[in-house]
Write a structure and sequence with these properties.
alpha+beta; 18% strand; ANK repeat; Multifunctional_ANK_Repeat; ZU5_dom; three-stranded antiparallel beta sheet; Ankyrin-3-like protein isoform x5
Length: 171
């Protein structure tokens, strides 16, 4: 396999087998300390060529009301959601997530034809605001070798890709 096909790792062992493996493999480890240091233990009988640990992104959550406010990402400080006064009629919890995408990864996957900004989500999804909110995102940075696009000699083009779906359901 070349790493292009991925599947979720499912544990097919019994609870007793897992406990035996943990007791045998990690003798003397303090499990409380491992949890606070963000250590993840993966139990498997096969070791794949490629392995990725995927976790949910950190979500900044603030209560925003009729007075307005700002939610900023700690993962990508340039990402902000700005709510002007009266964009909301009541106080609600607003979540903001930002996932940066490395230029090296984009170049490996797509060549130097594109630059990608962070992926951003705002929750609650499908919420209608009474006034427009402002989402601030950093402009994608070009690859080290210079960006090439289909318009020779012209400045790079900028496109915004959006999704208004919540979960896996169709919009």
């Amino acid at each position: 396999d070349n790493g292009t096909t991925w599947k979720e790792h499912c544990l097919e062992e019994s609870q007793n087998a897992v406990q035996h493996i943990l007791n045998y493999s990690f003798e003397g480890d303090d499990f409380d300390e491992a949890h606070t240091n963000r250590v993840t233990r993966i139990v498997t009988t096969e070791l794949p060529q490629y392995l990725a640990v995927v976790s949910r992104l950190r979500q900044e959550v603030h209560v925003i009301g009729p007075e307005g406010g700002v939610v900023s990402s700690t993962a990508v400080p340039q990402v902000q959601a700005i709510f002007p006064p009266n964009a909301l009629t009541k106080k609600i919890r607003v979540g903001l997530q930002a996932q940066p995408i490395s230029n090296e990864l984009v170049t490996r996957l797509l060549g130097n034809r594109v630059g990608i900004s962070p992926i951003v989500t705002v929750e609650p999804r499908r919420r209608k605001f009474h006034k427009p909110i402002t989402l601030t995102l950093p402009v994608p940075t070009a690859a080290n070798k210079g960006m090439i696009n289909q318009y020779n000699g012209e400045a790079p083009t900028l496109r915004l890709l959006c999704s208004i779906t919540g979960g896996n359901a169709k919009a």
